[in-house]
Design brief:
Blueprint: H1 2-24, H2 50-62, E1 72-85, E2 97-107, E3 111-122, E4 134-146, E5 153-167, E6 188-202, E7 207-218, E8 229-241
Antiparallel strand pairs: 1-2, 1-8, 2-3, 3-4, 4-5, 5-6, 6-7, 7-8
C-alpha cells in the first residue's frame, strides 16, 4: 500500500498544478458592457449596449405614463387668486380676492370625474358701505379631460356645474347700482359654472403639481347679484393618487 501511494503522489501533484494553472489564465476578451463585474449591477454607460440604454430610458418614462394605468382614486388641493371681470368690475371697488378648493375623484386615464368644495373671498370697497368681503361657498360637480403621455407633463381641460352660496354683509339700499346685493348675515343660493385648463407636472406616480386658469360664472340666483358675474382665477396646487 505504501508503495502505491508513493507511485500515485507525483501524478496527483501534476493534476492539481494543471488545474491551478488553468484557473490563473486570463479570460478571453469580451465586448465592453457584455460581461458585468461580479457583484455589480449592470448600468447603461458610454460604450454599453444601446438596447439596454433604450430599455432603461423607457422604464424611466413609463413611471409617468398613465395611458394604460389602472383607475385610481385622486385627491386635489388648489389655491387661487380671483379677479372679477366685466365693465362694472371697477378695480378701485372690486379688489383681487383669493380662495381654495379640495377635490376628490377617480382618475380613469383620459377622464377624471371629480367633486370639489371651495371657499372664496373678494374685498368690495363700495363708497359708503362696510368693507366686509364678498364670500362664496361652492360645491362643484364635474370632471377633466386629460391627455396622458409618456412625459411628466399632462395637459387637461375641465368643466363643472357649481352649487354656490354667496354672502355680502353690507348696508346697501338696493341691488341695482351695486356690484353685489346685500345679504345680511345669510348666504344666498346662486347656481353657476366653471371651466378650467392647465397642466399637471408629476414628481412621481402618486404626486403632481397642478397649475392652471379657471373661468367662473355665477347667475343672479336668489337676489345675490344684480346680473350675471364672471371671474378669472389663476390657481396652483397638488394632486395625490391613492
Amino acid at each position: 500500500m505504501k508503495a502505491f501511494f508513493c507511485r500515485t503522489c507525483p501524478l496527483l501533484v501534476l493534476v492539481f498544478a494543471c488545474v491551478a494553472h488553468a484557473d490563473d489564465e486570463p479570460e478571453a476578451d469580451l465586448p465592453a458592457g457584455s460581461q458585468p463585474e461580479y457583484g455589480v449591477m449592470p448600468m447603461a454607460s458610454e460604450g454599453s449596449d444601446k438596447r439596454l440604454e433604450k430599455r432603461l430610458s423607457m422604464q424611466q418614462r413609463a413611471k409617468y405614463d398613465r395611458r394604460s394605468a389602472r383607475p385610481k382614486a385622486v385627491l386635489g388641493l388648489l389655491g387661487g387668486v380671483a379677479l372679477f371681470v366685466g365693465d362694472d368690475a371697477d378695480r378701485d371697488i372690486v379688489r383681487p380676492g383669493g380662495g381654495f378648493a379640495v377635490s376628490a375623484g377617480a382618475d380613469l386615464g383620459y377622464f377624471a370625474p371629480e367633486l370639489s368644495f371651495g371657499y372664496m373671498a373678494v374685498p368690495l370697497e363700495e363708497p359708503g358701505i362696510s368693507r366686509e368681503p364678498l364670500q362664496r361657498l361652492a360645491l362643484e360637480m364635474g370632471g377633466r379631460l386629460q391627455f396622458p403621455n409618456n412625459t411628466p407633463v399632462v395637459p387637461y381641460l375641465g368643466a363643472a356645474f357649481a352649487v354656490q352660496w354667496w354672502k355680502f354683509n353690507a348696508f346697501a339700499p338696493n341691488c341695482v347700482s351695486f356690484f353685489a346685493c346685500s345679504t345680511g348675515n345669510d348666504f344666498r343660493f346662486a347656481p353657476g359654472m366653471s371651466f378650467r385648463t392647465g397642466l399637471t407636472i408629476s414628481f412621481s406616480r402618486s404626486v403632481s403639481f397642478d397649475v392652471g386658469l379657471r373661468y367662473g360664472m355665477t347667475f343672479q340666483g336668489n337676489n345675490a347679484f344684480p346680473t350675471t358675474r364672471h371671474w378669472l382665477e389663476p390657481s396652483f396646487g397638488f394632486r395625490f393618487w391613492i
